[in-house]
Amino acid sequence: MRSVLPLLAALALATAPISPAAPPGLVDVSARLPDAVLDIRYATADNFVGRPLYPVARCLLLPGVADRLARAAAALRTQGYRLLIFDCYRPLSVQRELWKALPKRGYVADPATGSHHNRAAAVDLSLAGPTGAPVEMPTGYDAFGPKARAGATEGVSAAARRHRDQLRRAMTAAGFSVNPVEWWHFDAPGAAALPLLDLSLDGSKAPPAGRPATSVKP
Predict the structure, then answer these.
(1) What is the pTM of this model?
(2) CA-wise closest residue to 108 among 52, 164, 49
(3) Residue 68 near residue 174 (C-beta atoms within 8 A)
């Protein structure tokens, strides 16, 4: 299993379709991690709002954050896993839509202060096996309940705990910190100091005046 994943990554890179240019200051993670499985829920109706909020399914991050994610992916690849990505950069305008749907702090970040997703410095993800099939985790994505907590044990199978902990170890070794109430959510260091961004995922909108995308150290 372990020897197959680097080959799959190389094949995916060779056959990957050309994506639209990323907004200024951000990078497309698919170009760096072609074996990552994208399941960008806010580009579909399979989310708690029940309708698509993104025009395209893309994972965009600041370059230093993408570098960290690549290190975590490399470590997990040696264990036979691929990254299964649910969300990365999220425009601030979309954050406002989420807040309208569920204005409850602890579940959705208030757009007045923003989420680290709005700073292109957070990623929601899980693990997939070599074929891209999801592995067992404590809950589905964006679940609201006690089993979604990063350290939940009650009602969580041994396999789900093992997979969750493998993901967390790789991500924290790369410098990310896990959200204590969402096992799938990881923030890059220094994220809170970065500006909020409202750039279109398809690159059609320039950064707000005076608020350029800012990188973080890899």
Answers:
(1) 0.86
(2) 49
(3) yes
Report the distance separating Cα 74 and Cα 70, nearest Å. 6
CA distance 134 to 37: 9
Helix ranges restricted to H, the chain:
4-15, 29-32, 63-77, 92-101, 158-173
**Identified catalytic residue from 97, 136, 154, 182:** 182
Q: Which domains does the chain have, with CATH numbers?
A: 4-193 (3.30.1380.10)
Under DSSP, the state recorded for 9 is H
**Residue type at position 155:** G
- Give the per-residue pLDDT at 204: 65
Q: What does the DSSP 8-state code read for residue 195?
A: P
Give 24's pLDDT tier (boundaries 50, 70, 90). confident
Query: Radius of gyration of the chain from Cα atoms?
Result: 16
Is residue 136 annotated as a catalytic residue, yes or no?
no
**Residue 107 burial class via C-beta count within 10 angstroms: exposed 0-12, middle 13-18, buried 19 and up:** middle
Q: Report which DSSP code applies to 115.
A: -
Beta bridge partners of 128: 82, 134
Beta bridge partners of 71: none
pLDDT tens-digit readout, 104-118:
998 899 999 999 999
Residue pLDDT, tens place only, 167-202: 999 999 999 999 999 999 999 999 999 999 999 998
**Is there a contact between 198 and 209 (Cβ–Cβ < 8 Å)?**
no
For the chain, the first-to-last Cα distance in angstroms comes to 29
